[in-house]
Amino acid sequence: MIPRSRALAAMAAATLVGTPACYAQAQTAVQDFDLPAAPLADTLAQLARSSGRMVSVDPALVAGRRTEAVRGRYSAEQALRLALGGTGLELVVTANGTLSLRPAPPQPQTTTLEPVSVVGAQESPTGHVDGYVARRGLSGMKTDSALIETPQSISVVTSDQIRDVKASSLADVLGYTPGFSSQTASFNRMVDDFMLRGFNVATGNSGMLRDGLKLQSSVYDGGQDPYGLERVEVLRGAASVLYGQLSPGGLVNAVSKRPTDTPLHELNVEGGSYDRRQLSGDFSGPLTEDGVWSYRVTGLTREANNWMDHTPDDKTYLAPSLRWQPSAATSLTMLATYQHIRTNFAAPLPAAQTLNGKLPHDFFVGEPDFDRYDTDTWTVGYAFEHAFNDSWKVRQSTRYFQADGNWDYLSFGALNANGSVRRGVVSRNERSTGVASDTSVEWKTATGPVAHTVLAGVDYYRSRYDSHRYSGTVTALDNIYDPTYGATPVLNTTGDYGIGTRGEALGLYLQDQMRLHDKWVLVLGERQDWARSNQTTFSSGANTRVKDSATSGRAGLVYLADNGLAPYVSASQSFSPTIGADRNGNPFKPTKGTQYELGMRYKPPGTEMLFSAAVYDLAQRNALTTDPDDSTYSVQTGKVRSRGLELEARAKFGAASLTASYAYTDARTTRSNDPTLVDQRVALVPLHAASLWADYDFTGLGIAGLTLGAGARYNSSSNIPGYDRDAPGYVLFDGMARYDFGANHPSMKGLSLTLNARNLFNRGYVSCAASNGCRYGAPRLLYATMTYRW
Predict the structure, then answer these.
(1) Of 93, 487, 620, 770, which has the maximum CB count within 10 A?
(2) In the chain, what are the helix, strand and coil shares in percent, each to the nearest 5?
(3) At 310, is the secondary structure helix, strand, or coil?
(4) Contact call for residues 636 and 659 (beta carbons, < 8 A)
(5) Is residue 70 included in any domain, yes or no?
(6) How far apart are CA 690 and CA 536, in angstroms?
(7) Is residue 193 part of a domain?
(8) What is the pTM assigned to this prediction?
(9) Cα–Cα distances in angstroms (integers) from residue 642 to residues 474, 681, 765, in the given order
């Protein structure tokens, strides 16, 4: 806490920056405020310094009083009025513009506050957002920044949307997000493997983050469960300047649920299609009366089957967290997770048999007593933040990750004329570990009319991945329509053809967010990376070592118009190391990406709406392609380019909420030594994709407690490399109905029932990553969830 004498001295000093001639202009000027909940004297001193306004108060009047947090664009008077909520004081503006305080007169019992303004002002980039419209985020700048001031495409999916669309995987979470594509749910229920703007951003490309830190070391370490997330932020396009090794497509940052200041208790009992039975709970609140210590425990346990025969979908998830916050300036949050997944791998199928529907949709090519996909995943870490004063802030986060997996499956070999299937055998024992750390210092200062937010930091990531793999033999499956199981695969346990990798990356970054006259935001950033990797092939003992360094940057400019429009332009870079060597033994260089983006955001003043549009040109160089002199090797002369348009709308108006998106993504190989790939579109990426989700609370129409929601997801056809047909396009419809029993029966307050349907009309569809890598989509899935909150 700042001593009273120091706070008042700061207020007195602030009066020197203005003159009476400036007061008329200052009274109407708006600016960004980021004032935490704090002692009133501290808030007055900070507001005086940041706005240049004269503040005159009686020290005895402010002693012992605390203010609300204020974040957003306001005039000095508006910000101070919001901060004074609940203090018993009111603002007085004298004739010469001086800000003062006096005790507020008693208010009649019927007087109410303006809740919308206060809630909006208190939004946290890691906290809960009511509805679907987030205004602030951390992923775009690594600072608490307004989305409208970020010169790059970013989408935020809130926990309310995650709940309403009944997302069971991270792919479900992002299904209504522009520029996103993935395989079907049969694959995504196990792993997080996605495409953004036509480029893969899965763990192998370092694009999957948790709380701003790189997460897994292998894509098969198990997907993140949506129930443990407060929000998911998607930053599209090249973004290595803040995060180091990334593919050009961008990143997906999942934000954990964290302890809350107010008590939260939630219990859910769920049942659904294919014998789904799930129990989940979320509990949070202060542990001490002063709120210095708070906790949160989120978890679920599930037993279920699947639309694929002999494929369970069992999971256990637990995420405890603990926060220590001795003051408004300091916080330490400790976070941990444990997850166990028990299911079977959905082996890819040939396009020739899936596109014509010859294989049954519930076909299981494996053996029930052999196939398994069992993973255990642990994480433990912390996030620390301390503000030394109004100008200086330090953040430090570290996490350790470990995953152990046992993964056995039979692959589809070939379909014989008599209807039997030859099968391959794969057995994998895997362990992944990772240590991620990020330390940064934020400095807010001014040079003349320019306000700076300078961010300097260092991040580190160390990964280890050991995959022991064995092949074998097994008899053919006799009949695809009525298979007889019971064969015992024979493993070749002496022939380990797996790999072991070690990776280490260190990066230094510097960024300056500059504001000029509250109209222009200029962002400049630069980064230097050093990376080294080591890959061992167990079968031969061959070892490949690679050392890389790279410099990447970003520049962006935003104009903030008074009517809520915010056009922007930006350029950014990415890089990602490539493990391996050419036929002469020369290590491969990193792939590099460059993006140019022109966009527009629109936030109508006084509304809960945010509209976004962007066009971009994104290219990746140094891509691997076949060596023309020896096809068993590769050279780095390939190039992949993506160009497109993305539109997104998020809005809440009255009793209705909606999110809508459209993406045109022309991602294709423009240079390759394989002529069959030149000018071919990237697999899994539709040229056109669109989505719409909307819900409506019928209380205002006389049906208290009833909320109905509906959504549609459209993907046009997508290319299948090496095949003469495309995977057909499709439209899927989703629905939701929720009834709050407490709306009509006070004794049942907190009790609600939600019915969800995904792929409501049971549309059949297929996704294909290659001609021998297709999977059927999920059929209609129905869920019923009884929730009790208290």
Answers:
(1) 620
(2) 10, 50, 35
(3) coil
(4) no
(5) yes
(6) 43
(7) no
(8) 0.84
(9) 43, 9, 25
Both structure tokens of 683: 């697999």
Question: How many other C-beta atoms are found inside a 10 Å radius of the C-beta of residue 360?
Answer: 14
The 10s digit of each residue's pLDDT in 19-40 is: 343 444 444 566 767 777 778 8
Q: How crowded is residue 541: how many other Cβ atoms within 10 Å of its Cβ?
A: 7
Answer whether residue 789 shows pLDDT above 70: yes
CATH code: domain of residue 711:
2.40.170.20
Dig out the tokens for 324 from the structure: 């220590």
Please state, in angstroms and rounded to a whole number, the distance separating the CA atoms of residues 406 and 224: 18
| Residues found in the chain | 790
- Other C-beta atoms lying within 10 Å of the C-beta of residue 222: 25
User: How many angstroms separate the CA atoms of 447 and 493, rounded?
Assistant: 68
> Whole-angstrom Cα distance, residue 147 to residue 140?
8
Q: Calculate the average pLDDT of the chain.
A: 90
Strands (DSSP E) found in 249-312: 250-256, 264-272, 276-286, 293-303
- How far apart are the C-alpha atoms of 396 and 391, rounded to whole Å? 17
Residues 6+ apart with CB under 8 A from 17: 52
Element (H, E) at 96: none
pLDDT reported for residue 25: 46
DSSP secondary structure, 16-45, as one string: GG--HHHHHHHHH-EEEEEE-SEEHHHHHH
545 or 425, higher pLDDT: 425
Domain boundary among 58, 92, 108: 108
Q: Is the pLDDT of residue 753 over 80?
A: yes
Q: Which comes out higher in pLDDT, residue 673 or 689?
A: 689
Asked if residue 304 lies in contact with residue 273, where contact means CB atoms within 8 angstroms, the answer is: no
pLDDT in tens, 108-155: 544 434 433 333 345 899 999 999 999 999 999 999 999 999 999 999
Minimum mean pLDDT range among 329-343, 364-378, 631-645, 689-703: 631-645
Q: What is the pLDDT of residues 72-101, one digit of tens each?
A: 767 888 888 888 877 888 888 876 678 888
Domain count, the chain: 2
CB burial string 636-665: b at 16+ within 10 A, e below: bbbbbbbbbebbbbbbbeeeebbbbbbbbb
The domain containing residue 28 runs over which residues?
Answer: 4-108
- On the 0-12 / 13-18 / 19+ scale of CB atoms within 10 A, 114 is exposed
**Phi, psi (deg, nearest 5) at residue 45:** -65, -45
Q: State the pairing for strand pair 774-776/766-768.
A: antiparallel
Q: Is residue 184 part of a domain?
A: no
Instruction: List, for residues 723-751, the tens digit of each pLDDT value.
Output: 989 999 999 999 999 999 999 999 999 99
H helices present in 231-299, as ranges? 240-243
Question: Does an H or E element contain 605, and which?
Answer: none
Q: What span, in angstroms and rounded, lies between the C-alpha atoms of 189 and 171?
A: 8
- Residue 650: inside a domain, yes or no? yes
- Give percent above pLDDT 70 in the chain: 93
pLDDT value of position 673: 85
The neighbour count for residue 559, using CB atoms within 10 Å, is: 13
Question: Residue 523's closest CA among 178, 239, 177?
Answer: 239
d(CA 627, CA 153) in angstroms, rounded, equals 36
Beta-carbon contacts of 227 under 8 Å, excluding residues fewer than 6 positions away, are: 280, 282, 298, 300, 317
Q: Which helix (H) or strand (E) holds 118?
A: helix 115-121
End-to-end CA distance of the chain: 34
How does DSSP assign 147-207, residue by residue? GGG-SS-EEEEEHHHHHHTT-SSHHHHTTTSTTEEE--HHHHTT---EEETTEE-SGGGT-
With beta carbons less than 8 A apart as the criterion, state whether 18 and 50 touch. Answer: no
Domain boundary among 78, 108, 138: 108
